[in-house]
Design brief:
Layout (H helix, E strand, L loop, with lengths): L3 H25 L6 H12 L8 H22 L3 H18 L5 H12 L3 H19 L17
Length: about 150
């Protein structure tokens, strides 16, 4: 069980990261805070030592899954069947590329079901993931936090 101070710090930084994404989304008139990004923030701040939380996996997994979502959408359209296939294909592709990041499977589902335009969706997804990584690095540099992030790039 984590120490209460660690849980409080992780919670505070996760809330700060997600509020920043929400605020930027309002300024840009585009959604930056989507459910898979919230799950990614939970991993970065709640389990920063896991391989799936590392920057390469977070950023690469999210972008790979989105690309698979777009490819699947092109073939199946916005269907539940296509969304299910995209999520499964994303899992396999992430495993084969060493970019496993479980929240990214949900990104492929969103892409299939909603069919957002590639631009601005992909640049915004990249921005959101890079910001999560940057904010994830702050706790280890503030107040002598014992947990380091990232452990690997």
């Amino acid at each position: 069980m984590p120490h209460a101070l660690h849980a409080l710090r992780a919670t505070s930084f996760a809330i700060g990261a997600l509020l920043l994404l929400a605020a930027l989304g309002v300024l840009l008139h585009q959604p930056l805070l989507i459910p898979p990004i919230a799950a990614s923030a939970a991993l970065v701040h709640g389990a920063p030592g896991l391989p799936i939380s590392q920057p390469r996996n977070l950023v690469g997994g999210q972008l790979l899954a989105a690309a698979i979502g777009y490819g699947t959408h092109a073939v199946t359209g916005s269907t539940s069947w296509g969304a299910a296939i995209a999520a499964g294909l994303s899992l396999g592709a992430m495993m084969l590329t060493g970019l496993s990041h479980s929240p990214a499977a949900a990104t492929s589902v969103i892409v299939v079901l909603q069919g957002p335009p590639v631009v601005p969706f992909l640049p915004l997804l990249l921005l959101a993931t890079v910001l999560l990584v940057a904010i994830g690095m702050l706790p280890g540099r503030v107040g002598g936090h014992a947990v380091r992030y990232p452990l690997a790039w």
